[in-house]
Design brief:
Radius of gyration: 17 Å
Number of strands: 7
Structural class: alpha+beta
Number of helices: 3
Shape: elongated
Oligomer: single chain
Strand content: 25-35%
Strand order of the largest sheet: 1-2-3-4
Order of helices and strands: HEEEEEEEHH
Number of domains: 1
Helix content: 25-40%
């Protein structure tokens, strides 16, 4: 199971040697992750027990459902994979810098201006 982005990035490197992973979004159950690669491609990584598998997927393979994102791989052996709790907004945020540091900096600058 993947719990952190670093674990998802490591799993992508294990499953797809030679790739460079830069960001990831993880399913709420930790069984799957969508990983952004350095060249703007995406990879789907899933775990089954201790076994990790992955494959490159195309953006049109992603579909929003009530429970999260489903990746329709079209591969009978890999199957369709559900990213439970992941939304389209989570997918859009892949590769973007976190907002918290920028917001903290803006608040600090505003407090200095008021002083």
């Amino acid at each position: 199971m993947m719990r952190t982005i670093d674990e998802a990035l490591d799993a992508a490197l294990d499953a797809l040697p030679g790739t460079q992973a830069v960001d990831a979004v993880i399913s709420a159950d930790g069984r799957a992750a969508l990983v952004l690669l350095s060249d703007a491609r995406i990879a789907l990584v899933r775990t089954r027990g201790r076994r990790v598998s992955g494959r490159e997927v195309a953006w049109p393979m992603l579909r929003q459902t009530y429970d999260g994102i489903v990746v329709e791989t079209g591969d009978r052996r890999f199957g369709d994979v559900a990213l439970v709790g992941v939304t389209a907004l989570d997918i859009r945020r892949l590769g973007q810098a976190p907002m918290a540091p920028a917001i903290a900096e803006m608040v600090a600058m505003d407090e200095l201006a008021d002083a």
